[in-house]
Design a protein that fits this description.
The chain is of the alpha+beta class and 76 residues long. It has four helices and three strands. It has a domain of 50 residues.
């Protein structure tokens, strides 16, 4: 088990410290007034909240409605 400080967790997740303080869905452990993050829990959280690239391409979803995915010519 690897404990990370708020700075280390922010670097690991590529987020700002402020985001880690605000996001209550990111797993954390409190020791008194300090917050620590278990690296293995963060890795599991990332896996649970990430969409595989193949799934996104298969559905054709993009958050920008003006963006159009290119169609594959080999499929036709």
């Amino acid at each position: 088990m690897t404990l990370l400080t708020i700075e280390e967790a922010a670097d690991f997740l590529r987020l700002k410290k402020r985001t880690l303080y605000r996001r209550q869905d990111i797993p954390r452990v409190r020791y008194g007034h300090s917050i620590r993050f278990i690296k293995e829990d963060l890795e599991a959280w990332i896996r649970a909240h990430s969409d595989p690239v193949d799934t996104v391409r298969a559905t054709g979803y993009h958050r920008n409605p003006l963006f159009v995915l290119p169609t594959s010519k080999a499929a036709g």
